[in-house]
Design goal:
The protein contains nine helices and 21 strands. It is α+β, with helices and mostly antiparallel strands. Strand 8 and strand 9 form a beta hairpin. The longest helix has 15 residues. The structure holds adenosine-5'-triphosphate (ATP) and magnesium ion (MG).
Amino acid sequence: MDNNNAINLSNITKTYNLYNSHTDRVKETFHPLRKKYNHPFNALENVALSVRKGSSIGIIGRNGSGKSTLLQIICGILKPTAGTVEVIGRISALLELGAGFNPDFTGVENVYLSASILGIGQKETEKKFEEIVEFAEIGEFINQPVKTYSSGMYIRLAFAIAVNMKPEILVVDEALAVGDIFFQQKCIQHMQQLMQNCTKIIATHDMQAVANLCERILVLDQGKVIFEGSPLKGIEYYTKIMHNKRFKKSCEFEPGINKVNSIDILEENDWVDVSEDSRAGACEIIIEKLKITSKECVPINIVKADDYIIIHLIVNSLLPKEDVIFGYLIKDRVGNAVFGENTIECPTGAISIQKGRYRVQFGFKWPEVYPEKYTITVGIGEGNHPSNHTIQCWAHNLLAVSAISPNRFIHAMFNNPITHMTINPVR
Ligand SMILES: Nc1ncnc2c1ncn2[C@@H]1O[C@H](COP(=O)(O)OP(=O)(O)OP(=O)(O)O)[C@@H](O)[C@H]1O
Ligand SMILES: [Mg+2]
């Protein structure tokens, strides 16, 4: 293996024998001629991966794509059916919950147990003990059996042990998502600042973590590597394949309002139906369906600053109407309205429509906001005033997007630049 590599996997395949039913399994066990009732299933197929020492790689992919299987093979917990695994360096692993700890032991005992599994002696563990307890921030619970811990406390302790034992390779499977936001930030900062020489392999659905932490990304799909490259390209690729599976026909971005016939609409995928009970307002004009796409009309669920996004609506006006306006509101995880606008301020202004069904599309540039999940509320109003108008229809929180901010740290909801500074000595 190349001396600069910490991990080398070649042609890794992991095959499971699956049975359609429990009866088939029993039949196979007792069949006099050993007839097979199972069929092989490849959780991983021909996966190759080289990881340079000190680099960090993210593994993304849908549920069941093989991420955890791959990490378990790297850690030596699972044996591949075929292929070779070479790993150089001491591994600390944070695999799925439950891995590693003895539930009847206290936190303290588990620190020593984990250390001994990692090949770290009692003396060295004693030296690191204070640091671990401080990092975990679980207070006196450190003396309680870990079976009494919440899942957040459990992962705090596991993470504190894993990162403070100064591993050469750190393997993290989704664990970051369990702690609260402050602990997640602390872990990410710790990994970025104090673990630069450690090789990191992180499987996650958290695109912001991947964009922040990883130099390279592997996208897995049905056990195969379908992309390897830079994080941003990887995230883009992943988003596309997630949708392309369901997305057949590309629509055009046609500014303005176009009357549609329902057969056309049905040919397009990814519409979210707005049910009667999720609508509010006078409802003489109603929102029937909606979706959010990129400028190329590809459905999206991940956005970054300056991406142009389009909200598509199918609306049904039950009466002819004058002064119709459309708008959107983006809310954060806890429901704060972060930004929004309506079409009064755009060149078309308020418009008149006849009775009938229309397709409405409006777009805007995504601003530089804190990376997290946002929901989208859309509305139709009647009137010429930005705030004083009749609400015809609101559709609340039916769409969601995850914002990422790979190139810039966002300090609060958004950044506001400092434009002036002086410093003078005083006596
Ligand atoms: N012991 C097993 N026996 C049979 N099939 C298994 C076994 N372990 C995993 N699989 C299958 O292998 C595939 C890959 O599973 P894996 O847990 O690696 O996916 P994952 O990418 O980690 O998914 P997630 O995002 O949900 O964590 C899945 O289809 C899973 O059902
Ligand atoms: Mg998994």
